[in-house]
Amino acid sequence: MPNKVWRQFINWFLVFCVLVTLAVGFGVVTHFQEVIKGFKIYSLIQSQALEPKNTDTLIEGALRGMVGSLNDPYSTYLDKETYTSLKESISGGSNYGGVGLLITLDEEKKVPMVVSPFKGAPAQRAGIKTKDFIINIDGQSTNNMDLETAANLMKGEPGTKVELTILSENDLSTRQVVLTREIIQVPAVEGKILEGHQDIGYLNFLTMFSEQTAVDLGNELKELRQQGMKRLIIDLRNNPGGSLAAAVDVASYFVPEGPIVYLSNSKKTEALMARGYAQPLPLVVLVNGGSASASEIVAGAIKDTKSGYLVGEKTFGKGIVQTIYPLPGDTAVRITTHKYLTPGKHDIHHKGIMPDYVVTMEPEIEQHVLANAPDVENDPQLQKAIELLENQ
Q1: Which CATH number fits domain 95-185: 3.40.50.300, 2.30.42.10, 1.20.1250.10, 3.40.50.2300?
Q2: What is the pLDDT of residue 310?
Q3: Max alpha carbon distance in the chain (Å)?
Q4: Does the annotation count 116 as an active-site position?
């Protein structure tokens, strides 16, 4: 390298170092008391704590604390184990030992709340339902517990047991539920022609939307059309959502053109558009209080674009989007970065989506029909969907 070029490189590097030093120095001066407190706490833990922790553990605790200061139940620091599990779930290849619950953090009670029990899993068979609160896990209080910790406590080797203390929404007293963990397979899409209705197809999105969901959906639709399907019912009841990209892909099978969803933050609002491969047909979508997040994106897009009707009960109301940012050491941080609006620019967060046709079910009936869906004889929501399609 010529001397002149080398000198220029050295000069630019020195300027860069000075700027970084000034920036760090300004940060320390501006937050001098907080920096001193941090060093003091570290010193006290190492010298006075009954069970001191190593530096790596303390730093990880500080990272969790920074994210926790957002007071957002959906934003969290993801350690290596949790991040690996999440990546497997998003890719559609997640099998684990557990009880089959999707949970969120109730902002008022500060304990995990059930968004949706996975169909056919131990939790659903035991009668745990949407909006039940999990007060204890194996005797450990869940008050102010982060979601990843709660989820990991419920996971374990298949065949082992876990005891949950459950408080239902309108109950005054708790109940103990002992569950035996099983292999929980995150399913994709299941389709069939409804018995006694030879041109009505039924698609059940069994749990979370993953990278594989739209592919499986396309295959199921092709097969159902080959079997003579001309009308369709989509079951999104107790569907906890999942990947935003998968939701846009799924909705694109039914919304022919235009926005699927709007993403909005403090800087801008942008539309995610239909992919252009829809083959529209008479359509009804079943929803309930366990339909959340990505499944609400699909339901909202279909309703607002009049691509089909919604039947059932008001959806859960999770209208915010999290972005995952990888960190060194195969860890990550998940932060709420956007809210989303339906194609009609409706903000559904904490509000949910009201179906075109409201059909309620008693909890005992709902538990039975969802565990055995499709149940044409006993499911009033499914019956209403069939009625609507046959009258078109």
Answers
A1: 2.30.42.10
A2: 98
A3: 87
A4: no
Which residue is catalytic, options 89, 293, 295, 307? 293
Residue 192: active-site member = no
Element (H, E) at 335: strand 331-341
Helix (H, G, I), strand (E, B) or coil at 12: helix
Q: Which of 119, 129, 314, 318 is catalytic?
A: 318
CA separation for the pair 233, 257 (Å, rounded): 21
Catalytic, 131? Answer no
Q: Is residue 214 scored above 80 in pLDDT?
A: yes
Q: What is the CATH number of domain 189-390?
A: 3.90.226.10
List the catalytic residue out of 132, 216, 235, 304: 304
Predicted pLDDT at 292: 93
Question: Which residues make up the CATH 3.90.226.10 domain(s) of the chain?
Answer: 189-390
Read off the pLDDT of residues 175-212 as tens digits, 9 standing for 90 and up: 999 999 998 865 578 889 999 999 999 999 866 788 88
* CA gap 233, 385 in Å, rounded: 7
**Contact between residue 292 and residue 115 where contact means Cβ atoms under 8 Å apart:** yes
DSSP string covering 101-158: EEEEE-TTT-SEEEEEEPTTSHHHHTT--TT-EEEEETTEE-TT--HHHHHHHH---T
CA 113 to chain centre: 13
Q: Long-range CB contacts (< 8 A, 24+ apart) of 323-328?
A: 324/78, 324/86, 326/83
Asked if residue 315 lies in contact with residue 303, where contact means CB atoms within 8 angstroms, the answer is no
In the predicted structure, residue 112 carries a pLDDT above the cut 60: yes
CB 104 within 8 A of CB 147: yes
Mean per-residue pLDDT, 2-11: 54
The pLDDT tens digits for 238-279 are 888 888 999 999 999 999 999 999 999 988 999 999 999 999
Q: Of residues 166 and 68, which shows the higher confidence score? A: 166
Mean pLDDT, the chain, rounded, equals 87
**What is the pLDDT, as a whole number, of residue 24?**
52
The residue with tokens 């159902």 is 224
